[in-house]
From TrEMBL:
Residues 50-275 form the ABC transporter domain. Keywords: ATP-binding, Nucleotide-binding, Transport. GO terms for molecular function: ATP binding; ATP hydrolysis activity. PANTHER family: ABC TRANSPORTER, ATP-BINDING PROTEIN. InterPro entries: AAA+_ATPase (IPR003593), ABC_transporter-like_ATP-bd (IPR003439), P-loop_NTPase (IPR027417). This is ABC-2 type transport system ATP-binding protein. Residues 1-40, 344-364 are annotated as: Disordered. It comes from the Bacteria. Gene3D superfamilies: P-loop containing nucleotide triphosphate hydrolases. Belongs to the ABC transporter superfamily.
Amino acid sequence: MITVSSVHSAHDHGWGPYLRRGSTGGERRHIGTSGGRALRTETPSVDAVIEARNLVKRYGAKTAVNDLTFTVTPGHVTGFLGPNGAGKSTTMRMVVGLDRPTSGSVTVNGKRYVEHRTPLAEVGTLLEAKAIHKGRSAFDHLLALAQSQGIGRTRVAEVIDLVGLHDVARKRAGGFSLGMGQRLGIASALLGDPATIILDEPVNGLDPDGVLWIRTLLRGLAAEGRTVFVSSHLMSEMALTAEKLVIVGRGRLLADTTVEDLIATATDRPVAVRSPQAGELGRLLVSAGASVTDVEVGELSVTGTTAERIGEIAAERGLVLHELHTEKASLEQVYMALTRDSREYTTDDDAADERADQQQEVAA
């Protein structure tokens, strides 16, 4: 089982050579909780483009977002993760003014979204791919949006080409597949050439080529110095796309850090062992209190001890080791451990399936 240590760090990271705005480094990290209170390192949020402060949203007796504070800065992709019902979509809706916070605040470039004079040029959003006029063509849908913001027809043609809808631009959007609807929604988000892009589950309905396309697009937008804030339930894709993560559970902040630093918090990582005497070594390790899983003939996955101790035990008995190393935890493993107590729907079968998935991943 992967567990997550409650640590925090305050390393500074630059945003690369593409920034439009100046950067002084300095960011706040928060990983895990201690005694029910968040572990935080606070630094000035001078670079924060999206900034949520003590954000609360209640619907009657239900608290969907609970004292949520985080920042999203330019120059990299920030993933927004959490179990179903964690408050991700509600938070994104509050960022763009579709829901009003019960208390707290959220700003984009220091202003509430509704205070921006040309919001499409400031913030591009995809929160619901079905929010289109089904009777209009893709081109006419985008043109109507463009005209409402003083954007020319040339830009409409550009984003249609960018998202790969050129061949269907004159077809009714109501007949689009889910994946084509996603592409049209992304085109709408990019129409005003915004500095900030907010996308809710943008890979939904996309085939593998489409997933690769959106990954390349998001990383390219971030490399240009834009702020990219994207939610997803696909941990493997977030591991390839995002550099920073904001993770929530039951409306509360669980982590605000980099992918690399989050994975580094994993403890009790399995140790991979390959030996021609794996059977004998496995029995010795079990006697020493470790948990041992046979992966393949001559290969073991060991938890409950360290690679150093395994090497010592093998040396004491004169056993040959061909391979010995601590496995790197995956983002999915760390995420599942971090959010274990924050899921609204869990069962014993879910836990068993999770363990089986982890064993298969180790075996692979």
